[in-house]
UniProtKB/TrEMBL annotation, chains A, B:
A Pfam family assignment: HxlR
Residue span(s) of domain HTH hxlR-type: 12-110
Keywords annotated in UniProt: DNA-binding, Transcription, Transcription regulation
Species of origin: Larkinella rosea
Molecular function in Gene Ontology: DNA binding
Protein name: Transcriptional regulator
Cross-referenced Gene3D superfamilies: Winged helix-like DNA-binding domain superfamily/Winged helix DNA-binding domain (1.10.10.10)
Record carries keyword Ion transport: no
Entry annotated with the keyword Lipid biosynthesis: no
Source organism, top-level taxon: Bacteria
DNA sequence: GCAATAGGGGAAAAACTTATCCCTATATGA
DNA sequence: TCATATAGGGATAAGTTTTTCCCCTATTGC
């Protein structure tokens, strides 16, 4: 596994939440697990843009941070289910707030993101 | 400047907010600007762990995303002040929710983050 | 035997972010 | 004249994350 070379900043609260929530797909993983998509293959289908590998890695990190638990059923073919811990559940309202804000401002967000991405043809002051 | 090679995912709301809020220091920049620290040098003093360079870059991105405005005073030595736009201000409650959650769970967060970071001496199942 | 399904992981490359170093310019003060 | 404060940018290096590719287990079905 990759080993960090810089010490994480843990000064303020915003550093702390950053540590557990950073990762391109983590917020969505938590969200979908909360919605009932528990098995790795289900989550992969819900987030097709992410590689299988990364989802595994990020799920493992969420597990290490005690936000989700992983239950392995001893069957063949193997079956695994993730669930939110009580701790993980406390994050759901926060994620909901993020989601609600983006939904409210969806159009504008798309505008400013695309304006920046798609190269600057029309540069309006 | 750096040019993206992968298209951003803009499927769901959580993608959108990710686009404008990702960046190691962005949330704190917004927070401190909201608290009244407006000048680049002030912000750098508030966030000493970040390099001057990155703060400039991330401030510029926040500006491109219309979350902050930059006002340049034509004086010497130069003076610049950032302010939240109306759009940016709508994000403050969301950031407050993030901060509140981390504050409520600060001890536990430090635990799980450090347990993971400081190498695994005691591996408890 | 081979493919599909369900889970996982190592190695390396590509992509992306952040840090470091050095440069511009002006006014003030030593 | 030189250092400092102010604001910013380019080039490059270092660090980190994500993707890609390939391999492994075991069973069912063809």
């Amino acid at each position: 596994m990759y080993e960090r070379k810089t010490i994480p900043n843990l000064n303020c609260g915003l550093d702390l939440i950053g540590e557990v929530l950073y990762g391109k797909w983590k917020i969505r993983l938590l969200w979908f697990i909360n919605e009932g998509y528990k098995r790795p293959s289900e989550l992969q289908r819900k987030i097709p843009d992410a590689s299988r590998r990364v989802l595994n890695i990020q799920l493992k990190e969420l597990e290490e941070h005690e936000l989700v638990t992983r239950k392995i059923y001893p069957v063949v073919p193997p079956k695994v289910e993730y669930s939110l811990t009580e701790f993980g559940k406390t994050l759901i309202p926060v994620i909901a707030a993020l989601g609600q804000w983006s939904d409210e401002h969806e159009t504008r967000l798309r505008d400013v993101i695309l304006k920046q991405t798609v190269s600057s043809d029309s540069d309006n002051t």
